[in-house]
Amino acid sequence: MSNKQIATTRAPAAIGPYSQGISTGSLLFISGQLPIDTTTGKLLDGSIGEQTSLIMKNIEAIAREAGTSLDNIVKTTIFLTDLGNFQEVNEAYGAFFSKAPPARATIQVAALPLGARVEIEAVATIG
């Protein structure tokens, strides 16, 4: 079984030595996504809910590039610099799942790359 790098211009380019996503067998691993606007290449200056929605759109673009969708996401991890934002993030995140939402962990961290307040990674099935 070989790994395949997934890359799309519809989501932010990696800001380090990693891939937007890697598929292996029937699984897709999507790297942590920050609220980066692909048109400007900069962090979105908006509410934490708007930032979460942008991240989910970026995750969706990577999933589509791999031939899958948000409906096939089985696990996510949300990293927040302030758990006080949990409710707003939860509302924005939940709007992206029309079926049963995936398993999830939410973790407060001291800091995120580029000074972001939220980052989300995902695992999806393919096929």
Write up this protein:
It is a single chain. With 127 residues, this protein is an alpha+beta fold. Helix content is 21%, strand content 32%. It has helices at 48-65, 86-94, and strands at residues 3-6, 21-24, 27-33, 36-37, 42-43, 73-80, 103-108, 118-125. It has a six-stranded mixed beta sheet, covered by helices on one side. Strands 4-5 form a two-stranded antiparallel sheet. The two termini are 15 Å apart. The relative contact order is 0.24.
Set out the fold topology:
Layout: E1 3-6, E2 21-24, E3 27-33, E4 36-37, E5 42-43, H1 48-65, E6 73-80, H2 86-94, E7 103-108, E8 118-125
Parallel strand pairs: 6-7
Antiparallel strand pairs: 1-2, 2-3, 3-8, 4-5, 6-8
Helix pairs in contact: 1-2
Question: What is this entry, summarized?
Answer:
It contains two helices and eight strands; from the N terminus they run E-E-E-E-E-H-E-H-E-E.
